[in-house]
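Entry for iron/sulfur cluster complex. Fields follow.
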Amino acid sequence: MEVKVNEDCSACGICEDICPEVFELGDEFAEVKVNPVPAEHEEKVREAAEECPTESIEVSE
Ligand code: SF4
């Protein structure tokens, strides 16, 4: 799984709360720390993508 955060991100921090192993809040946007996503974190990344209020998390398999 590959994941990226697009520029619609509002830096709310929800993704980092859900999966701090993969997401880290930067100054303006959340940043992805590891790509591709390790298998053990894929479920939480999907959850973060669903919970993101601006639908900024783009997941590709
Ligand atoms: S949950 Fe969405 S809007 Fe919030 S910091 Fe993460 S990518 Fe950005």
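NOTE: The chain has a mean pLDDT of 97.
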